[in-house]
């Protein structure tokens, strides 16, 4: 934390912000702000952030405005300053993001803020430990609806006025405007005046069909989560309404703005959502709603404690989607999709303690880079282990003490541990040292003493977990709760049996089964009754492959045997994703066709099997990977093919050398997702001309971040190692150029577009050297440098 920020937090109290925003011009938007606050040291001076403003005035005169700051000198005990400015719209999702819907030409404006972005929208004291109340009014085109953090007070002509909000941090400020279609209702809530709160779901006008299709389920999940949280959390729901918006141009999955949560608009899927997508949306709804308490009501003091927001929300997201919203297998999805991202992140050099040390967060870009899978996935898993270790009741009591003690304020790790400590006799500080202040993960190793299994922990933490015993055909015989620390645990009663540690996936540690157990597991994986245990075992197989203990071919062979009989859609889809990721990163070019053929054939089996829960996910994989052009063309000719499946087939056909289906598909689907899919398909065409064109587009600096993503996804085709080879080093040089001209968000997507495709070891080494040389110059912007360092670590694992 910067000293000047620490000083400012001490200096200022009782901040209130009155805002009027004018969104009627398409060139720029107008801001009028009246900010009042008290100062603890009259005579001192301070500053407001405002990034990119023009015509900036302070109290009616030209403002002392430089380097994104308005100087405020000689403060009184009470102060009121009035700032006006013209501000630019943006298209990269960092600020007042304007999007034009290609389907109908309608314009949408969304204040996508966070971290240090709110200063690109309004003048503010832009740090998390200075909270302000807000009075907002917005003038907008007359056919728009405007939503903001506060509940709507009323509309007069084209001006929307919102109720005064409770205090919250600047990074949580938002408003969204456009011709939204809406589904609204009054949610029962006893403490509210009248006994209900206004709730709503909103989407772009062109997504009306999808919103109506999913409205009942979206409402059901929302209500179930809300009723759950307002029962288990002691502080009342802090805000006057709860609006959820599928907002265009958002760079993240979702964002927890108080009373006005936004989700990326792709989450309202055009085609039939797959089970994994449905579960993701349910967990994300629960995640963002948890933030109303964790993050919004009680906020981290500074960014090193972002885990206090994100680890909790991530944990609650999976937990509450299950216990409240009926997605009872959410943890199965976590085991095979979410947790693996945590292990992968924890293996890289960039890993960091879940609760980072203050002096490591040198600037906002570093803090931004730490919103990673250590903070989300590993933090989530560590809290799940904490809850399992403490027991649910004490865990919840500690959480409630924390929320009550710091409501509308800020807190840090020490404050959280004080609350937890008051709720349990167990040593939570030692637990925090071991789990929150360290890096890396433990390995649970099974060996045999004679035929007695012995469980050993390689690493440094204590674990409470379930160990299960099976017969050789993987029929469950027994399970027991085990506390595993420094001392090995002999499992006498499981002598001669197959054993699986962490069968309930309660802890964050990888598993190395003994040889006999592994032989039985690989022979009988699909016979394991618990889907959660199967998911954990599939991850173990993927992990063994990524650790080069087994080959990609062995993993594919395992899938050939045991994924075909898999009936659980989350396990099926999750494993399919992992298989594709592993093949892309670890396979040699000459092996790819064989691997893809097996994966596509497993998908084909599931599609033809007719199980409606498996079909949507399997169809997408089949359409994207099949090498059978005639089959794909025939599929496109059928009625009622899901739009996402259609685009996958069009992209695959383009990749196989037949781009003729792109234009007709574009004509039939003018949606945002259709626009992105067409970009992907064109970038996949296997000719030098098409690649040159896609490259010029990619590095031209004109693409929005989602468009950049879309082109990047198509560019590095599975079987195109030779064709794209000239672009491997250009990715580094051109990417660096573009990264230096762009902001955080673009740095992130350039990093995501890293060439991940099967390459020979020599070519991988070349790519490695080019990236390392660029990093050595010290000129790579922080966010991109983080992505590239991570990509290098991942590449090194394959060499
Ligand atoms: Zn979150």
Defining key terms:
alpha+beta, binds zinc ion, nine-stranded mixed beta sheet, five-stranded mixed beta sheet, 799 residues, 44% helix, globular
Q: Can you walk me through this structure?
A:
With 799 residues, the chain is of the alpha+beta class. Helix content is 44%, strand content 21%. The strands form seven sheets. Strands 1, 2, 4, 5, 8, 11, 13, 14 and 15 form a nine-stranded mixed beta sheet that branches. Helix 5 runs parallel beside helix 12, helix 14 (569-586) runs antiparallel to helix 15 and helix 15 runs antiparallel to helix 16 (615-625). The longest helix is centred in the N-terminal third of the chain and has 25 residues, at 208-232. The protein starts with a helix and ends with a helix. The mean pLDDT is 95. Zinc ion (ZN) binds at residues 256, 287, 291, 310, 313.
Task: Give a nutshell description of this structure.
The protein is α+β, with helices and mostly antiparallel strands.
Secondary structure elements and pairings:
Blueprint: H1 3-11, E1 12-22, E2 28-39, E3 46-49, E4 54-58, E5 61-62, E6 65-66, E7 69-72, E8 78-88, E9 95-100, E10 107-112, E11 131-139, E12 145-148, E13 152-156, E14 159-162, E15 168-169, E16 175-178, E17 181-188, E18 196-203, H2 208-232, E19 242-247, E20 254-255, E21 260-264, H3 275-291, E22 299-300, H4 306-323, H5 330-347, H6 364-369, H7 374-390, H8 392-405, E23 410-411, H9 413-421, H10 428-435, E24 442-449, E25 452-458, E26 463-470, E27 476-484, E28 489-490, E29 498-501, E30 509-512, H11 515-524, H12 531-546, H13 552-562, H14 569-586, H15 589-609, H16 615-625, H17 629-636, H18 643-655, H19 662-668, H20 672-684, H21 688-699, H22 705-715, H23 721-741, H24 744-752, H25 761-776, H26 782-798
Parallel strand pairs: 1-11, 18-19, 19-21, 22-23, 24-30
Antiparallel strand pairs: 1-2, 2-8, 3-7, 4-5, 4-8, 6-7, 9-10, 10-16, 11-14, 11-15, 12-16, 13-14, 17-18, 20-21, 24-25, 25-28, 26-27, 26-29
Helix pairs in contact: 2-3, 3-4, 4-7, 5-7, 5-12, 5-14, 7-8, 8-9, 12-14, 13-14, 13-15, 14-15, 15-16, 16-18, 17-18, 18-20, 19-20, 20-21, 20-22, 21-22, 21-23, 22-24, 23-25, 24-26, 25-26
The structure holds zinc ion (ZN).
Zinc ion binds at residues 256, 287, 291, 310, 313.
């Amino acid at each position: 934390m910067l000293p000047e920020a620490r000083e400012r937090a001490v200096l200022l109290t009782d901040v209130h912000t009155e805002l009027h925003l004018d969104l009627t011009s398409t060139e720029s938007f107008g801001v009028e702000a009246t900010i009042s606050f008290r100062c603890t040291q009259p005579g001192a001076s301070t500053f407001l952030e405002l990034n990119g403003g023009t015509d900036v005035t302070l109290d009616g005169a030209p403002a002392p405005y430089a380097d994104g700051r308005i100087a405020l000198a000689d403060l009184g005990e009470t102060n009121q300053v009035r700032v006006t400015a013209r501000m630019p719209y943006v298209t990269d999702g960092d600020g007042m993001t304007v999007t034009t819907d290609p389907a109908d030409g309608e314009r949408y404006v969304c204040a996508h803020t966070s971290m240090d972005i709110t200063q690109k929208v309004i003048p503010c004291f832009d740090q998390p430990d200075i909270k302000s109340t807000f009075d907002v009014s917005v003038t907008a085109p007359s056919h728009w609806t405007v939503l903001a953090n506060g509940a709507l007070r009323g509309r007069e002509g084209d001006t929307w006025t919102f109720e005064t909000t409770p205090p919250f941090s600047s990074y949580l400020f938002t408003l969204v405007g456009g011709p939204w279609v809406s589904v609204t209702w009054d949610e029962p809530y006893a403490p509210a005046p009248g006994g209900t709160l206004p709730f709503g779901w909103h989407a772009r006008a062109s997504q009306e069909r999808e919103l109506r299709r999913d409205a009942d389920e979206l409402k059901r999940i929302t209500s179930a989560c809300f009723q759950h949280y307002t029962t288990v959390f002691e502080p009342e729901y802090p805000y006057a309404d709860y609006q959820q918006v599928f907002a265009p141009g958002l760079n993240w999955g979702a964002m927890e703005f108080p009373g006005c949560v936004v989700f990326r608009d792709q989450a309202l899927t055009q085609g039939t959502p797959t089970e994994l997508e449905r579960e993701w949306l349910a967990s994300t709804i629960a995640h963002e709603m948890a933030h109303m308490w964790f993050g919004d009501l009680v906020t981290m003091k500074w960014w090193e404690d972002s885990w206090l927001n994100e680890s909790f929300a991530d944990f609650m997201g999976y937990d509450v989607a299950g216990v409240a919203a009926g997605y009872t297998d959410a943890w199965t999805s976590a085991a095979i999709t979410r947790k693996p991202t945590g292990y992968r992140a924890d293996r890289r050099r960039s890993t960091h303690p879940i609760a980072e040390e203050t002096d490591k967060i040198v600037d906002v870009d570093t803090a931004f880079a730490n919103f990673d899978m250590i903070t989300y996935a590993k933090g989530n898993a560590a809290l799940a282990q904490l809850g399992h270790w403490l027991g649910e009741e004490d865990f919840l009591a500690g959480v409630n003490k924390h929320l009550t003690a710091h409501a509308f304020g800020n807190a840090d790790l020490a404050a959280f541990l004080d609350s937890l400590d008051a709720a349990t006799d167990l040593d939570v500080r030692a637990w925090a040292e071991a789990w929150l202040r360290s890096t890396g993960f433990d390995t649970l190793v099974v060996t045999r003493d004679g035929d007695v299994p012995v469980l050993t922990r390689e690493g440094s933490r204590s674990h409470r977990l379930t160990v299960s015993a099976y017969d050789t055909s993987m029929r469950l015989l027994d399970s027991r709760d085990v506390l595993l620390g420094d001392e090995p645990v002999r499992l006498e009663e499981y002598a001669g049996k197959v054993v699986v540690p962490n069968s309930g996936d309660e802890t964050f540690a990888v598993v190395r089964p003994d040889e006999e157990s592994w032989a039985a597991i690989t022979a009988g994986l699909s016979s394991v009754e618990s889907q959660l245990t199967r998911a954990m075992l599939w991850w173990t197989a993927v992990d063994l492959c990524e650790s080069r203990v087994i080959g990609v071919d062995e993993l594919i062979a395992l899938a050939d045997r045991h994924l075909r009989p898999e009936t659980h859609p989350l396990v099926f889809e999750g494993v399919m994703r992992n298989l594709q990721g592993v093949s892309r990163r670890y396979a040699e070019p000459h092996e790819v066709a064989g691997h893809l053929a097996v994966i596509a054939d497993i998908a084909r089996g599931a599609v033809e099997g007719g199980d409606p829960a498996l079909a949507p996910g399997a169809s997408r994989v089949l359409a994207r990977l099949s090498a059978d052009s005639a089959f794909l063309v025939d599929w496109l000719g059928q009625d009622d093919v899901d739009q996402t499946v259609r685009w996958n087939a069009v992209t695959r056909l383009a990749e196989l050398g037949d781009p003729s289906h792109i234009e007709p598909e574009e004509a039939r689907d003018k949606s945002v997702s259709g626009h992105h899919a067409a970009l992907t398909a064109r970038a996949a065409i296997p000719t030098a001309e098409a690649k040159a064109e896609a490259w010029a587009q990619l590095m031209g600096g004109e693409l929005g971040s989602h468009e950049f993503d879309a082109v990047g996804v198509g560019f590095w085709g599975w079987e195109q190692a030779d064709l794209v080879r000239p672009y491997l080093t250009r990715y580094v040089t051109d990417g660096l150029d573009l990264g230096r001209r762009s902001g955080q968000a673009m740095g992130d997507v350039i990093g995501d577009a890293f060439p991940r495709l099967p390459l020979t070891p020599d070519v991988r080494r070349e790519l490695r050297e080019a990236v390392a040389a660029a990093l050595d110059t010290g000129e790579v912007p922080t966010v991109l440098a983080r992505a590239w360092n991570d990509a290098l670590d991942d590449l090194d694992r394959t060499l």
